[in-house]
């Protein structure tokens, strides 16, 4: 009896009735029919073969999906093994994968459109050589129309009682025999800096004649300071300017060589030299005045052009590390295509500012703006073709950007064949 009470399974399998044992003498047919009824199971038996049809079907479905997953896993594992064994599917070694992972992983091109910039590599190279040679000839034959900062002359600080226009001051000086005067504002439109070509060394007489020439109707002028700049000082400024340009190019060469690669640094420096020499050559060809403001524009142009080139070089390095299955020429075309939108937006915004200074900035900023305008066009062109085509001609490839492990630092796999290990 104790066994029956302690065995819940047997109790579950016993027949049930609607009446107690004392009322079992009632209708026999009803008692037998009700006694034959068994409670339906809501759950399957422990062996999984119960009467719950939905649960059984769910188990079968789960088993079928697991089997399909095992088959798919086996198929994919077999495909991966075949790709690993087949050399044609091998995309790169560990160094290539590490370099790609450092840049964000392998990048797929897909159906991305690539503009073939390098198809025009040779015609653009010939055009660049022609412009550089023409600029050098113009500088050698015509020379630069150097301003007072380089040739020397007279500078005077002038203040007026009322506002004055630069053109009116220049015309007043020309009427009194002071030609080729340069007038700039000093903070306000009442204070000006007047620069003249070399005059007599008599400061007192020069001061008196300038005071008379600068007086305007109902607007007298007062001269606070007069300086005479000799030709020797102008020559020193000229030599220092040339040294500044050369030092800037050398520093750019070292920076790009350390930051990227020597092949890229050579292309960057040649493109910067191209931009500077073409801008100066245009000034020599047309006889535009070349003073310290134009020199400042050339130095600013070198910095802008280098920044544009660095953006292209950074994308070239990234694509060499991340993209697989394309040639170096296609990699450079892809990099130039991806940076084209940025280049157009940058040059457009900068040109808007330069044109505003050119037409609204007055005489003091005019030639500065002209030099920037010429240099921006040359710099955008050189960043696309000169800075990219020269490294490609020098044999730029993925090996220049992927660090290879030297053989003496590679790990050796040592296997021990000890017969006692299998006993």
Characterize the structure shown.
This protein is α+β, with helices and mostly antiparallel strands. Helices cover 61% and strands 8% of the residues. It contains 16 helices and six strands. It has helices at 2-6, 8-13, 28-36, 53-85, 94-102, 121-141, 148-151, 166-175, 203-214, 231-259, 262-286, 292-322, 328-338, 340-360, 363-384, 386-393; strands at residues 145-146, 153-160, 182-186, 188-196, 221-229, 289-290. It has a four-stranded antiparallel beta sheet with strand order 3-4-2-5. A hairpin with a 1-residue loop joins strand 3 and strand 4 (188-196). Helix 6 (121-141) packs across helix 11 and helix 14 (340-360) packs antiparallel against helix 15 (363-384). The longest helix has 33 residues, at 53-85. It is elongated. The chain starts with a helix and ends in a 30-residue tail after the last helix.
Quick one: how many beta strands? Answer: 6
Structural class label: alpha+beta
Radius of gyration over C-alpha positions, nearest whole angstrom = 44 Å
Main beta-sheet strand count, sense and barrel state: 4 strands, antiparallel
List the uncertain runs: 1-37, 47-53, 60-64, 71-92
Termini separation comes to 58 Å
Write the element-wise H/E pattern from the N-terminal end onward.
HHHHHHEHEHEEHEHHEHHHHH
Strand order of the largest sheet: 3-4-2-5
Number of helices: 16
Q: Beta-strand level of the residues, as a percent range? A: 5-15%
**Shape annotation:** elongated
Can you give the mean pLDDT? 75
Helix content: 55-70%
């Amino acid at each position: 009896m104790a066994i029956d009470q302690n065995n819940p399974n047997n109790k579950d399998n016993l027949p049930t009735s609607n009446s107690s044992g004392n009322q079992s003498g009632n209708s026999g047919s009803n008692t037998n029919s009700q006694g034959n009824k068994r409670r339906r199971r809501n759950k399957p038996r422990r062996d999984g073969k119960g009467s719950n049809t939905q649960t059984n079907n769910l188990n079968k479905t789960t088993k079928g999906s697991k089997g399909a997953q095992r088959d798919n896993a086996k198929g994919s594992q077999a495909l991966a093994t075949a790709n690993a064994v087949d050399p044609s599917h091998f995309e790169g070694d560990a160094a290539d994968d590490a370099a790609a992972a450092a840049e964000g992983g392998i990048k797929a091109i897909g159906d991305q459109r690539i503009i073939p910039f390098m198809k025009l590599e040779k015609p653009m190279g010939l055009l660049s050589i022609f412009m550089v040679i023409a600029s050098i000839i113009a500088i050698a034959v015509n020379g630069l129309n150097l301003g007072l900062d380089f040739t020397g002359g007279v500078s005077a600080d002038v203040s007026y009682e009322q506002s004055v226009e630069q053109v009116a001051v220049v015309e007043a000086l020309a009427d009194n025999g002071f030609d080729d005067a340069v007038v700039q504002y000093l903070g306000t439109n009442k204070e000006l800096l007047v620069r003249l070509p070399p005059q007599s060394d008599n400061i007192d007489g020069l001061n008196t004649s300038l005071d008379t020439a600068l007086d305007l109707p109902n607007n007298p002028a007062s001269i606070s300071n007069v300086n005479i700049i000799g030709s020797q000082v102008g020559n020193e400024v000229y030599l220092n300017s040339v040294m500044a340009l050369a030092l800037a190019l050398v520093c750019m060469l070292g920076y790009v060589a350390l930051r990227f690669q020597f092949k890229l640094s050579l292309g960057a420096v040649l493109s910067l030299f191209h931009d500077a020499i073409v801008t100066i050559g245009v000034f020599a060809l047309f006889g535009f005045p070349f003073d310290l403001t134009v020199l400042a524009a050339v130095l600013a142009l070198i910095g802008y052009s280098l920044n544009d080139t660095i953006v292209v070089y950074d994308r070239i390095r990234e694509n060499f590390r991340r993209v697989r299955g394309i040639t170096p020429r296609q990699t450079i075309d892809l990099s130039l295509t991806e940076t084209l939108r940025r280049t157009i937006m940058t040059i457009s915004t900068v040109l808007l500012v330069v044109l505003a200074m050119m037409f609204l900035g007055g005489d003091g900023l005019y030639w500065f703006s002209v030099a920037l305008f010429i240099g921006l066009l040359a710099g955008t062109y050189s960043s696309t073709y000169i800075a990219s085509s020269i490294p490609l001609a020098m044999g730029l490839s993925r090996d220049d950007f992927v660090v290879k492990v030297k053989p003496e630092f590679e790990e050796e796999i040592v296997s021990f064949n000890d017969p006692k290990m299998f006993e």
